[in-house]
Specification:
Blueprint: H1 5-17, H2 20-36, H3 40-57, H4 60-71, E1 86-89, H5 102-105, H6 108-121, E2 128-132, H7 142-152, E3 160-163, H8 169-180, E4 185-190, H9 194-203, E5 209-213, H10 229-254
Parallel strand pairs: 1-2, 1-4, 2-3, 4-5
Length: 255
């Protein structure tokens, strides 16, 4: 099933609505609706459901339980052939603001991905760094932001290949096929995203070395766990991947 612009927008909207905080807010809106209708019993049920849902999703051990099956599928990449031709860093997020340093304009996952890509690149004999991503609602393509950051971190311009068109992982996989010339490459992305990314790339006949980074499930034992924003953010990262996997199944059935 070809990803038309409308279908792409629909996918993004559905994904946004199924995120933990969005679900909690939807439950609150339903509770307010029943309150407006003077159905206090149903209003209490949905309000309580919202509070419980947000508390559970914000609880770090629960968010790590969601993340662990995703992040544990691929180990950190420490050993690899030195003659690999390319290191591809998948796109993430950024916010263009020239009043801020580049490190602050880059999203957190974007900085981790790019840093890991450069770490690996410096261990290879003669490889290129592929950065990818469109602009979205921002005036600057994400690939351009990655390229600027890579240059600031000491990567030579002739080592960087920037691809400005891809909007998601599927388009990145399709786009990179024209560059690789059948050479081996390393794929860098967030640990939680790596299983879905590898599935998409494998579906295009591409079999990269997986280099996961930005692991969120730390399994720390030295603090008291209470619901907090970090737990909620981690649950959102996990849910984003589970929704993405569900979308892949829907596309597979549609084809």
């Amino acid at each position: 099933m070809e990803m038309t612009p409308i279908l792409f927008i629909v996918k993004k909207i559905i994904s946004m609505l199924l995120m933990p905080l969005s679900v909690g807010l939807i439950l609150i809106l339903i509770a307010l609706y029943f309150l407006h209708k003077k159905n206090l019993r149903m209003s209490r049920i949905f309000m309580l459901s919202s509070l419980v849902w947000i508390a559970v999703m914000s609880y770090t051990p629960f968010s790590e339980m969601l993340l662990s099956p995703l992040e544990s599928q691929y180990p950190a990449l420490e050993e690899f052939p030195k003659d690999i031709g390319y290191v591809m860093v998948l796109g993430s997020g950024h916010t263009t603001n020239e009043k801020l340093p580049m490190t602050s304009q880059m999203g957190r996952s974007a900085m981790f991905r790019l840093s890991e890509g450069i770490r690996i690149l410096r261990q290879l004999d003669d490889a290129k760094l592929i950065v990818s991503g469109y602009s979205g609602m921002d005036p600057t393509p994400h690939a351009l932001m990655q390229k600027k950051m890579a240059l600031l971190l000491g990567v030579r311009e002739d080592q960087i290949i920037a691809r400005y068109a891809p909007k998601d992982t599927k388009e990145e996989a399709v786009d990179v096929k024209s560059i690789l010339n059948n050479r081996d490459f390393i794929l860098v992305t967030s640990a939680s995203h790596m299983p879905r990314a590898m599935r998409i790339f494998n579906g295009e006949g591409l079999y990269p070395y997986a280099a996961p980074t930005y692991h969120l499930a730390k399994h720390s034992r030295d603090k008291i766990f209470i619901p907090d924003s970090v737990g909620l953010m981690n649950s959102e990262a996990a849910m984003h991947e589970y929704v993405g996997k569900l979308w892949l199944e829907i596309v597979k059935l549609a084809n």
